[in-house]
Write a structure and sequence with these properties.
alpha/beta; Rossmann fold; 11 helices; globular
C-alpha cells in the first residue's frame, strides 16, 4: 500500500481570537491537491478568517496551518503569498492600472520577461472568456462580471497551485453569477487547482465543491460531499437544505457532472 499523499493545505487544531472574540476554535481540515473545498456558513461563522489563515493575512492564536506539508509561518511570507492566488468579492483591482497591468503584476514582480507576460495575459483573457481587446481598459470601464473575470485571471497569472476564493461571485446578478460558476467549473476541470472557496450560498457550494466544510460559530461542523450533504441528518445541514428548498439535487448534479 502506498502512503497517503501530503495534503496541500492542512489546518491543525487552529484557533483564532481577536479583541476578546473567539473567531475560530479547534479547526481541523485537510485539503487535497486538485480539489475544491467549499467553506459554507453564515456570516460570522469564521469562513473568511479560515481562508486568510492560509496565506497568513491573519496568524493563528494557537495551532498551525501547513501548506504543502510546511507550517506557513516558517518561511518567506512574501514568497508564500505570491504562490497563492487570491480572489475576493470586490475584486480589489488597482483602479489606476489597466487590465493588462493588473493581470501582469505578479509575473512582473517575479521577473518574467515582457514577452512572456504579454503572452500570459492574452492566454488568461481567453481562458476567462474575455476579449483581449479589453487589456488596455481600466477597471472602471468594465462591467462587474468583467472585473470579476479579470480578478480570476490575475489570481492565475503566475500559475499558482492554490487558489483562495472569498465569495468571488456574491455581488453579481444571478445570470452573471451562473455564467461565472459554469466557467469556474470548466477552468477547474482544465487546471486542477487546489481551491478553498468561501460562500454562504448552499446552491453554489453544491455546484462547485468536491467537498463542503460546514461552519458555525467558529467551529467546523462537518465535511461532506454534495450528495452526502443533501442526505445528512446533521441538524445544521438539514436546516440549510430546508432553507434553500427545491432545486438542490440538480445543483449538486451539475457540480459533479
Amino acid at each position: 500500500m502506498q502512503p497517503a499523499a501530503t495534503p496541500v493545505i492542512e489546518f491543525r487544531d487552529v484557533s483564532y481570537r481577536v479583541a476578546g472574540t473567539q473567531v475560530l476554535s479547534g479547526f481541523n481540515l485537510l485539503v487535497e491537491g486538485g480539489e475544491t473545498v467549499v467553506l459554507l456558513g453564515r456570516s460570522g461563522s469564521g469562513k473568511t478568517t479560515s481562508l486568510k489563515l492560509v496565506n497568513r493575512l491573519v496568524t493563528p492564536t494557537s495551532g498551525e496551518v501547513l501548506v504543502k506539508g510546511v507550517p506557513n509561518g516558517d518561511g518567506d511570507l512574501i514568497r508564500l503569498r505570491r504562490s497563492i492566488g487570491y480572489v475576493i468579492q470586490d475584486v480589489g483591482l488597482f483602479p489606476h492600472f489597466t487590465v493588462e497591468r493588473n493581470i501582469g503584476l505578479v509575473p512582473k514582480i517575479e521577473g518574467w520577461s515582457e514577452e512572456r507576460i504579454r503572452a500570459r495575459i492574452q492566454e488568461l483573457l481567453h481562458m476567462v472568456g474575455l476579449n483581449p481587446a479589453i487589456a488596455s481598459r481600466y477597471p472602471n470601464q468594465l462591467s462587474g462580471g468583467q472585473r470579476q473575470r479579470v480578478g480570476v485571471a490575475r489570481a492565475l497569472a503566475a500559475d499558482p497551485e492554490i487558489l483562495l476564493m472569498d465569495e468571488p461571485f456574491g455581488a453579481l446578478d444571478p445570470l452573471t453569477r451562473d455564467e461565472l460558476q459554469r466557467e469556474f467549473l470548466l477552468l477547474q476541470q482544465r487546471l486542477h487547482k487546489t481551491v478553498v472557496f468561501v460562500t454562504h450560498d448552499l446552491r453554489e457550494a453544491l455546484r462547485l465543491g468536491r467537498r463542503i466544510a460546514l461552519m458555525e460559530a467558529g467551529r467546523l461542523v462537518t465535511v461532506l460531499s454534495p450528495g452526502e450533504f443533501l442526505r445528512s441528518t446533521d441538524p445544521l445541514a438539514s436546516a440549510y437544505v430546508r432553507a434553500f428548498g427545491e432545486g438542490l439535487e440538480s445543483a449538486a448534479n451539475r457540480g459533479t457532472s
